[in-house]
Design a protein that fits this description.
Chain lengths: 1023, 512
């Protein structure tokens, strides 16, 4: 041995080591064991084979072969990242071992700051492997998770490409501090949305639901945490995988607006003016004669007219996705690289989304103590016209509902009219032209990355330090041409305007963690202690110009006049200490205690720091003697947890009184003014959620059936919200920690392997019951919302579930004079007008007769997945549903407008016209001065939004190429996304919510981008 | 091994050592109140912020409550748009308004925004480290402005809550209503102090409040309280401060004559890109898809226009030869187009106007219509007090104080400027002179948001408005049958609905 140059100490150690080998090998009877290690696919190289309790061992070669001299009866451990650890007693000379992938057996669960053996987990955690849903052809991973996780409600509130997923864990809601979970990607807590992540990069998801699972994320954990783990190199050698799918998207026929066609609309308008002449002595102002306006005088001349909704749609809009990934692994390093491209053209004309993504995860292990990692994931997202123009009141889709079907979208000569309106209607733009011409391009770049080092200090004690960064930049280019500007009332041409807005941010995180695990007899300890800091800074700018010479150049350099220019910045910082103890006795009595202490710049000076502790216990009853031999029960664990978590999403600087410019003019020129615009609150703090969870995990019939049940109860105190103040104070609100909500519910998940033979069939079912109640609102329990009769649809009040619909109770029409004379009336009421219920019984219908008229929260939600496999064929389908929620078709405010200014629902033809011709008793008359009440928020608009949806059906076939040098396998599949929707809700999408980000204002349908049905063909090739 | 751990621990500790500053973040791009209210310049900027909030008192709520509520103006009924923002504007005119009326609510809320800004200044200026001599005019302006807001509030809403201290926390924000007398006591105290602390006017004027403005305001306060004895010397003093009438009535409103010698106090605006523009005229001209013939600029007013339209009664009130008619009101002549909307074909003078057959004529207020280069971006200021107002108030005081002879000179100064041919007022009857002054105020100050207050102050509102209502209902069949039911309780507007919901110490005005 050539070790002469090494220091003496080294030499001594080495000698000692050799001596110990010698002593061991002579003390016991030796045995040379050899064999092959493999997995399902074949021989497996790089597997560590260790003699338990020693450092002696070897590795399997490329063909999976190994040879090792061991003491007879020794315990041999086979280890490889990504595979389940397996141990065998060495009694034979030949030991062949097949390892199973840990991803499939779910042995290890990703938890906060680490992993844990599934059996020993005491928190409520659902882990889902990405492979289970790899064939679902959607752009965002949250779409893939829909219906698969008990306790998690994922709604697609709009079909805008690349957007619109609302994720809520255990019904979480906060009045203003947001309700989306914290996403943590490979240990990096993410600020903002994560639609930039290519789903093909992901290995698994862990959904952390209870306080014990989440409390290490402290003041950000109240809405639950989703841990996203991306792919790492594993196995031995290099695996190359290419996957692609392409498809076509269609807007389903069901739920399209039931507004009138041209003939019906002309007839309705004709009736309208007949009544106006009859009841209001109306004369046509254009002619001075009491006659029907020419546009409507002869309805028979019209056919279908313009279907404004249909003309905005693109049939067979393409969607495509390509991912190329290379995974490599060896003793010294592992790598995983994925490059992806996703392109979803919108089902509305001239809209679409593209994403270019790349991720490289590299880990180096230069020696057996040190591990170094370098991960980077840049992405570019291009949003074309999908962010601002489509959804909601007075936008393009809403415009299509209400525009006169008599007006053409395209002239017979192919040119596009500028405006669209027939007699008595507001000037409207040509919405088809608006959609085609308005330009709203977002370009979003983002780089996520981290560097880490882990050092094994001694056996069981490790130190890991990491530095993470998240850098983003977004630009918005908006150009509204002279021919697409304006809106309702203000038809084009308008002055063209252009905007260019930017948003850049960076966020860094440093984390230093010690972990220590120790087994003493039957006691096993796992300790974690760490310190972490994070800082985020964002900068924004906006420029707005007008006076463009023509509509040819949509860039600001062409505009002559600056309308506005601004820039600003905002920042937050977080400093934290974390600690956790996991203890297990005999592998069946489990205890976990964790705590995070967070200091946040967002909180007031008096309240900078908060502590978030949790404790949980578990008992693996199936390991007890009285159950061990039970043939039916293969696994039974009971667990309970209690803890505190917080929510700090209150925006930056909210504790400080802010000032804003209030400029004036003095001496004929600008005089700078500054005034306080918001009150400060130095006592402002995080909101705290106390959560109890009781869970049961049960495996039956050798785990062919596994059941997970959880009950939770949580109470959020010190709810952050802007308490409304009397306006006479000079302010509208002050941020205060006064408010309390209560949430509770049950979650059940059942997995069953129904058939395991040549035809295999497995079923996963989950069902979730979430409930909530408001306990306190501010000092006076003043309800939030529902103060105005129009456009203020939800009310959150003490004693009620959050965000109830609030309005009048619709009660038909005063059909005749007798009904009118004898019944309570509104100040605008006449015979034939709408009747609302007089709830307070004072004989007058007014604003005090409004009540709670609906609930956007479902009674329960469920998901059902079935997988069939026969030889090389497989078939899966996912059914998801929601029962008992209601949705408010607030669009009716427009499409049941009785003033003759909008296109309306076909039902409006059945309106009251006279006592002899009273219509269907549901639709009031159109008399001027009486129509307002019918437009106020009322129960007529509330619909049951229960649905059952066949979200996805996939049929696939695998082709194995065992002899091919280049191609290992090919998988091809056909898939239908959003295959079928069964619901009584009359609109397109029962999950719609125009204010999806605001839990207090859910369930409002003011038109949204349609969710398409997608037919795809996909192929995965392994090289 | 132990050495390694020590190093690692030291490394971790070094990272955490900066923690104190790390969590202390204040906004970099926006000012905050902790770093303000220290220097004279900062207090001047704070006062500018109070002036800025004055603009809300002459936005749409201003003319809706001050003019359309009265017999001076009405609205151009637009059948297609029955949105509640439209209906609620009409409700104010028709006396059908309720506590959900966004326009009267806005007036209430915006006034208090200004009051809160004043209170912050007054509470913090004592501690500021600059000369008392520099503080006095700031205090004077602040108190003038607070009195102005409370005077408007007490006239429109009655005894309102008196917020006189800066609101710093939730607990400070809930106050009960004070009595009308208590509110007036504060107004009078504030104005008395303001008169002492404010400088006399110097010409050209800056637009800031001065002794003249504060004296005029206090005089009108006293007159509203029927205390003509206290009001008279205040107004007499104003006549010695260097103000006079401009020779030509129409010129008074020219942007080039802003803050002229006739101006006692006006709210400042400036057209351009700095966000300081006004757009009064766009509310007052008819609804049409193109109003270029009126404004000189292509613009669509279907959404904004058609308000504050002079009533026929108002049009008939102008005497022959009164130049104020043509100066204040124009006529848009045109037809109804095939889309049902008004098409403007010509703009005519209201003086001696004859409607041609087959045409439709829509009168509109043109006091605030002047050359501008961009739609909804005008240069016009809004007058609060003009010297002619002072002369007419003084005439009223003198008449009430038993000196009608002295009053005649002041009313006739105003009439002489309005038209050389207008007959000189010579009556010595107190009642006749009071009527003449009321007529003169109506015409001279038309469309400047004085009429409703004058009707209430002189006790004529119920009588005049019920008669006017009958006339209007005959003229327009779209006006509801239960409109214009004007009783004592309709002399006040309701406390906003939301305010009532949030603050359980409040009581609603009777009748709402």
């Amino acid at each position: 041995m050539q070790i002469s140059s090494k220091p003496k100490l080294w030499k001594g150690l080495l000698l000692l080591l050799m001596l110990s080998f010698y002593l061991q090998s002579t003390a016991q009877q030796g045995l040379v064991v050899r064999g092959t290690v493999s997995d399902k696919a074949g021989p497996l190289g790089g597997v560590s084979i260790l003699i338990s309790g020693t450092k002696q061992g070897t590795k399997s070669d490329l063909n999976g072969k190994y040879q090792l001299e061991v003491p007879k009866g020794a315990n041999l451990q086979f280890k490889l990242i990504g595979y389940r650890d397996t141990s065998v007693i060495a009694n034979n000379e030949i030991i062949n071992i097949q390892l199973s992938e840990s991803a499939q057996v779910l042995d290890e669960v990703v938890i906060s700051y680490g992993t844990q053996e599934r059996k020993e987990v005491t928190g409520a955690i659902s882990q889902i492997e990405a492979t289970e849903m790899k064939d679902v052809p959607v752009g965002q991973f949250s779409q893939k998770l829909q219906g698969r996780v008990p306790g998690v409600q994922i709604s697609q509130t709009t079909g805008r490409p690349g957007q619109g997923m609302a994720v809520r864990i255990r019904g979480s809601a906060s009045m203003n501090a947001g309700n989306t979970p914290l996403y943590v990607v490979d240990g990096q807590p993410i600020t903002g949305d994560i639609s930039n992540i290519n789903p093909d990069e992901i290995e698994s998801f862990s959904v952390l639901k209870d306080a014990s699972a989440t409390s290490l994320y402290g003041s950000r954990a109240a809405n639950g945490v989703i841990l996203v783990t991306t792919k790492k190199g594993k196995g031995e050698g290099i695996t190359v995988n290419f996957s692609a799918y392409g498809g076509l998207q269609y807007v389903p026929e069901r739920g399209r607006p039931d507004v009138m066609n041209a003939r019906e609309f002309a007839q309705w308008q004709k009736n309208y003016y007949e009544d106006k002449i009859k009841y209001e002595n109306w004369v046509n102002p254009a002619t001075g004669v009491a006659e029907i306006p020419a546009d409507y005088a002869n309805p028979e001349q019209y056919g279908e007219g313009t279907d404004w909704y249909d003309i905005l749609l693109r049939q067979a809009a393409p969607i495509q996705n390509y991912s190329l990934s290379v995974l490599g692994n060896s003793e010294k390093f592992s790598t995983a690289v994925t490059a992806g491209y996703f392109n979803q053209q919108g089902v509305l004309l001239n809209t679409g989304y593209q994403r270019f993504s790349f991720r490289a995860n590299n880990e180096f292990r230069p020696n057996d103590k040190l591990t170094l990692g370098f991960n980077i994931a840049p992405t570019l997202q291009l949003d074309h016209n999908t962010l601002t123009n489509t959804d909601g009141q007075r936008q393009v889709i809403d415009g299509a509902f209400i525009t006169s079907p008599i007006s053409p979208a395209i002239n017979s000569d192919g040119s596009l009219p500028l405006t669209t309106n027939t007699f008595g209607m507001f000037p409207n733009p040509n919405w088809y032209r608006v959609l085609k011409e308005k330009l709203d391009n977002y370009k979003r770049t983002r780089v996520l990355g981290n560097v880490y080092g882990e050092y094994k200090i001694w056996d069981g004690l490790k130190f890991k330090t990491r530095a993470d960064f998240d850098i983003g930049a977004q630009t918005q280019q908006l150009y509204v041409s002279s021919t697409s500007g304006g809106g309702l009332f203000v038809a084009p041409p308008q002055r063209a305007t252009g905007q260019y807005n930017t948003e850049t941010y960076y966020s860094w995180l440093n984390e230093n963690v010690f972990t220590y695990n120790k087994v003493v007899g039957e006691h096993s300890f796992d300790l974690l202690a760490g310190y972490t800091t994070q800082k985020y800074r964002q900068e924004n700018s906006a420029i707005n110009k007008t006076d463009f010479p023509n509509d040819q150049i949509p860039w600001l350099s062409a505009g002559a006049t600056v309308l506005g220019a601004a820039s600003n910045t905002t920042a937050w910082s977080l400093e934290s200490l974390i600690g956790r103890l996991n203890y297990s006795f005999k592998g069946r009595y489990l205890l976990s205690a964790a705590m995070r202490r967070d200091g946040s710049s967002r909180f007031g000076n008096d309240r900078k720091w908060g502590s978030f502790p949790s404790v949980s216990v578990g008992w693996v009853a199936s390991e007890e003697n009285f159950l061990k031999e039970n043939e039916k029960i293969s696994f039974l664990k009971l667990r309970a947890s209690y803890g505190l978590v917080g929510n700090n999403n209150i925006g930056d600087y909210r504790s400080i009184a802010m000032m804003g410019p209030t400029n004036y003019v003095l001496n004929g020129s600008l005089a700078q003014g500054l005034s306080i615009t918001s009150l400060g609150n130095p006592a402002l703090s995080w909101e705290t959620t106390k959560q109890l969870d009781i869970g049961l995990e049960l495996g039956l019939l050798d785990d062919r059936i596994s059941i997970v049940y959880d009950y939770y109860h949580k109470k959020t105190d010190g709810m952050l919200y802007p308490v409304e103040l009397p306006r006479a104070s000079g302010f509208s609100s002050v941020w205060t920690n006064i408010g309390a909500f209560k949430f509770w519910g049950h979650e059940i998940g059942i997995s069953s392997k129904n058939l395991t033979g040549a035809l295999s069939w497995s079923t996963d079912f989950n069902i979730t019951f979430n409930r909530n109640e408001v306990l306190q609102l501010g000092t006076n329990n003043t309800p939030i919302g529902g103060y105005t009769e129009q456009g203020d649809f939800n009310r959150t009040a003490v004693g009620q579930p959050i965000g109830q619909f609030f309005g009048y109770v619709y009660d038909g029409v005063y059909m005749n004079q007798e009904e009118f004379d004898t019944q309570p009336k509104h100040k605008s009421s006449q015979v034939g007008t709408v009747r609302m219920k007089d709830l307070n019984g004072d004989g007058v219908i007014d604003i005090n007769d409004r009540t709670f008229i609906g609930d956007p929260n479902p009674d329960f939600i469920f998901g059902l997945t079935n997988n069939f496999r026969y030889k090389n064929w497989d078939l899966s389908f996912l059914i998801a549903g929601s029962v008992g929620a209601q949705t408010m078709a607030a669009t009716y405010e427009n499409i049941e407008n009785l003033d003759g200014v909008f296109n309306v629902r076909k039902d409006m033809l059945n309106g009251w016209r006279s006592p002899e011709n009273p219509g269907n008793g549901e639709v009031p008359r159109t008399l001027a001065g009486t129509t307002e009440l019918f437009r106020f928020t009322n129960s007529r608009w509330v619909y049951d939004a229960t649905y059952v949806s066949l979200r996805n059906v996939t049929l696939g076939r695998n082709f194995e190429f065992n002899d091919n040098k280049y191609i290992k396998n090919i998988r091809a599949y056909l898939s239908i996304q959003e295959a079928l929707m069964l619901t009584k809700y009359p609109g397109m999408n029962p999950e719609v919510s125009v204010n999806a980000e605001n839990p207090l204002r859910l369930g409002i349908d003011q038109t949204s981008y349609p969710v398409p049905r997608t037919f795809t063909f996909g192929i995965n090739v392994g090289f | 091994m132990k050495k390694n751990i020590i190093w690692i621990l030291l490394f971790v500790l070094s990272l955490s050592s900066c923690s104190k500053d790390f969590l202390q973040l204040t906004p970099d791009s926006e000012p905050n109140a902790d770093d303000f209210y220290e220097t004279e310049e900062q207090f001047e900027q704070a006062v500018n912020g109070v002036y800025q909030s004055l603009r809300a008192s002459v936005n749409e709520s201003g003319y809706l409550m001050g003019e359309m509520r009265s017999d001076n103006t009405h609205y151009d009924y637009y059948a297609p748009d029955r949105g509640i923002h439209i209906i609620r504007r009409e409700n104010i005119d028709d006396f059908l308004d309720d506590a959900q009326n966004q326009w009267t609510n806005d007036y209430f809320n915006n006034s208090y925004t200004g009051i809160a800004r004043v209170n912050t200044i007054l509470d913090r200026i004592e501690m500021a480290g600059f000369d008392q001599a520099a503080k006095d005019p700031i205090i004077g302006e602040a108190k003038f402005l607070r009195a102005f807001y409370y005077f408007n509030l007490v006239r429109y809403f009655g005894g309102v809550p008196l917020y006189l201290k800066e609101v710093l926390k939730e607990g400070d924000a809930f106050l009960p209503r004070s009595t009308v007398d208590e509110v007036y006591n504060v107004i009078i105290a504030d104005l008395s102090d303001a008169i002492e602390k404010l400088p006399s006017p110097s010409f050209p004027q800056s637009g800031r409040a001065n002794k003249g403005a504060a004296s005029t305001l206090l005089a009108e306060v006293y007159m509203t309280r029927k205390n003509f004895t206290e009001a008279e010397p205040l107004l007499q003093a104003v006549t010695t401060m260097g103000y006079n009438l401009l020779p030509n009535y129409a010129d008074v409103f020219l942007p080039s004559n802003k803050n002229s010698r006739e101006s006692i106090f006006e709210i400042q605006f400036m057209m351009g890109d700095q966000g300081q523009q006004s757009m009064f005229t766009y509310w007052f001209i008819p609804k049409s898809t193109n109003v270029e013939l009126i404004t000189g600029i292509t613009s669509n007013t279907l959404n904004s226009g058609g308000w504050n339209v002079p009533t026929s009664d108002m049009m008939n009130t102008y005497e022959a030869g009164d130049s104020r008619k043509d100066a204040s009101v124009g006529i848009a002549e045109g037809i109804i187009g095939s889309d049902g909307n008004f098409q403007i074909q010509a703009v005519k003078s209201s003086e001696g106007y004859q409607l041609p057959a087959g045409k439709i004529a829509k009168p509109f207020v043109k006091k605030y219509l002047h050359t501008h280069s961009r739609e909804q971006n005008t240069d016009d200021n809004w007058p609060i007090y003009r010297y002619s107002d002072v002369l007419l108030l003084l005439a009223e005081c003198l008449n009430e104080n038993g000196k009608p002879g002295e009053a005649l000179d002041y009313i006739n100064q105003v009439r002489k400027r309005a038209g050389a041919t207008l007959p000189v007022i010579t009556t010595s009857s107190k009642g006749e002179l009071a009527d003449a002054i009321a007529h003169e105020r109506r015409v001279e100050l038309a469309y400047e948001n004085h009429r409703w207050h004058d009707l209430v102050r002189t006790g004529k509102a119920i009588e005049v408005m019920n008669a006017h209502g009958e006339e209007m209902k005959q003229q327009y069949n779209v006006i509801s049958r239960n409109a214009y039911h004007v009783t004592e309780s309709r002399l006040l507007f309701p406390i906003p609905y939301l305010e009532m919901q949030l603050n359980n110490q409040l009581t609603q005005n009777p009748g709402y």
